[in-house]
Write a structure and sequence with these properties.
The protein is mainly β. It has one helix and eight strands, in the order αββββββββ. The protein has one helix at residues 2-22, and strands at residues 26-39, 46-58, 65-81, 86-105, 108-128, 134-155, 160-180, 191-207. The longest helix is centred in the first third of the chain and has 21 residues, at 2-22. It starts with a helix and ends with a strand.
């Protein structure tokens, strides 16, 4: 009789923790998106595509809304036609720290994330669209951004999910003319520049 009572107590303590541990708390995802960079200062607007990959860790709690921390890396290629023969491009790669929350109900998960990013690679310049030659290049330094993302996914089984991600980030960077090519123009866009980035894309997510 004492043995049965002891086993019942052990099971009552261990079963909730076992159920909690079976919940998958690590999500790995890839995304592809359409992005726009709207100049908030004396510069031009850009649009293009971005691809990225990230991971999100959900802290196990007994509530439906759980805290999340994650990391994300992406590469973005954007351009803008400033004239008929001159093409402005702005390509950059960034690393992002994510903090936020996850809400899950049945097969649907919703992540609300804050973004704190730094672009460690920047390629900004003007190209000749016909000759495929570089006309003007700029040096980009101190490219930081903050913002938020909303990621919603639907689970097709225990591991794979698919969904959409929307993003809005505010970028700040320093832009300096690096090479003055064969064309001459009045450049008023040197110095500190700011952009509003918006994007929407498809997300593929795996829970492990």
């Amino acid at each position: 009789m004492i043995t049965k009572i002891f086993l019942a107590i052990i099971l009552s303590i261990s079963l909730p923790s076992i159920a909690l541990s079976e919940e998958k708390n690590l999500d790995i995802y890839m995304d592809g998106s359409y992005k726009m960079l709207k100049a908030k200062s004396n510069d031009i607007d850009f649009s293009g595509a971005g691809i990225g990959a990230g991971t999100l860790y959900t802290f196990p709690t007994s509530t439906n809304i759980k805290p999340v921390i994650g990391a994300y890396f992406d590469y973005n290629a954007t351009g803008s036609n400033s004239t008929f023969i001159v093409f402005d491009h702005f390509n950059y790669a960034s690393a992002v720290l994510n903090l936020g929350a996850k809400y899950k109900i049945n097969s649907f998960s919703l992540f609300l994330l804050s973004n704190f990013g730094y672009a460690y690679y920047n390629d900004y310049g003007l190209d000749n669209a016909f000759m495929n030659t570089n006309l003007i290049t700029y040096e980009i330094k101190d490219h930081y951004f903050v913002g938020g993302s909303l990621l919603g996914s639907y689970a097709f089984g225990d591991v794979f999910s698919m969904g959409l991600k929307t993003t809005a980030n505010y970028h700040v960077l320093n832009k300096k003319l690096k090479i003055d090519g064969p064309i001459q123009f009045n450049d008023n866009s040197n110095g500190k520049q700011t952009y509003l980035e918006t994007g929407i894309g498809l997300v593929l997510l795996w829970s492990i």
